[in-house]
Amino acid sequence: MSEHHDDDPTAQGSGFAALGLRPELLKALDELGYEEPTPIQRETIPYLMDGKDLLGQAATGTGKTAAFALPALHLIDGRAASKPVALVLVPTRELAMQVSEAFFRYGKDLGAKCVPVYGGQPIYRQLQALDRGVHIVVGTPGRIIDHMGRGSLNLDGIRMVVLDEADEMLDMGFADDIESILEGIPHAHQTVLFSATMPPRINSIAKRYQSDPVRINVVRGDTKASAGKVRQSAYVVQRNHKPAALGRILDIESPGGALVFCRTRTEVDQLTETMNARGYRAEALHGGMDQAQRDRVMGRLRDGTAELLVATDVAARGLDVDTLTHVVNYDVPSAPESYVHRIGRVGRAGRQGVAITLAEPREQRLLQNIERLTKQAITIEKVPSVADLRAAQLEQTVAAIRESLAAEDLDDFYPVLNSLSGDANPQRIALAAIRLFHELAGNIADETEIPDISHRMERRPDGGGAARPGGKPQRSDDRRHSSEKNATGFVYIALGRNAGIRPGDLVGAIANETHLVGREIGPIKITEKFAIVGVPEHSVEKVISALKATTIKGKKPNVRRYTD
Ligand code: AMP
Predict the structure, then answer these.
(1) 460 CA distance to ligand 1 middle (Å)
(2) 312 pLDDT band (50/70/90 cuts)?
(3) Whole-model pTM?
């Protein structure tokens, strides 16, 4: 076992500082517990700070939001909020809120004012917010066009336009709106485009609206990287279920020693606390700790006092512990190379190792990028159910008792058995003893089911599950359900051309209100008075109740299943 401290994590602030960001931004990043820029941030921020146009291929989870948000926030220094300096276009309401929250968090010491504008929210609230003065506007194309039409969005001061998830916006039918918006800003400005894929339509937008853009791609993945003899699995869970899911998975895996990677210092501290509350002996390791604290933690891992080490990448650099059996990615790492680096901590010297990754449904592309780099499959597993957990715990008890049966000093306990033999028969005595052991072994009664959303990972744009080098089906029930999954159901919406409805409005409303993405929605038929939209059959009811609870173009339409 050895530890190297070549990279002093206490000097980590230099990563962002070297990018030339304002001190207020550096302070906010430090408070958020970001220890170093992700590859997309390192590669793009210098160009963006230099005023260049940029065409970046990067998926969700790479840190691309901060890659454009930090340079955009850099532009507002010293300027009172009046006309916006940056405009960010995003495909969905969910993303508009998420991106605008990111602007708020990064820009709080600069007093940055950011307003999200999207369909479905009463427009007067947005009008008031815009009227009070803003630095940054983040919005869906349809709603931005509405505001431009009303004269409530002054674009005279715009210095940077960002198209985030451009491919998704095009899939959702926003191409015309995007072009109208870009043409509505006639003066010189910086145009930044991020997209997970680069179909020709993206390149043609780039050609028309960007000047000599810098091209950045963090999806490079042709170098063969070895992930060794490591069993690799991923679990798809919503963020709020991650702590419970990790506890459940580790209860079943019962690792000898596990290294759990988190993105930020804050996350490391929170997760350490949660895992301790669940009965694990967990220790935190991050760049905010001094050398003495780090050494203490390492000592505890070394002598087995700690069984889980929760760490950031920076803090775990150079850490080499041969008792580790599991590496856990609490989030999908922002770069595939970092995944390979992380899981290289197990499976050494021919030993078996396990790599577990918790992914949110939006992060599927990152998993595919990793599989492309390693040329190895990551199996999508179901989060264990309460029943799975109980079965595994009982199995562990059986194994422990079997081991104890082989011990030679069992006879020492005859006096205990003898004194109990008057109370019950040997079988009942054995059962009582097993129960006692089972409970003392820390097997907690966990009754909460964690929703299984692994099916969301199977709808991959390339038509299958994750890139599977072996070509094996990932889940045995894949094929059984595939015909149901591919069926299209139809939804009738009592709003049509007369109400000004366009395909983009329907796709936008559905994608905003459900977890469907643009390519899952269609065909769409719009008549004067009504519209019919195809959606995956299994989502029809969800779409109907979501649309009933929202407004489209300010109206609450009648919505029902269309069966004719
Ligand atoms: P994004 O790809 O922009 O959706 O970001 C993915 C996640 O990574 C978000 O939760 C961010 O808060 C987080 N994040 C972004 N940059 C960093 C960084 N340099 N260090 C740690 N976490 C980060």
Answers:
(1) 23
(2) very high
(3) 0.65
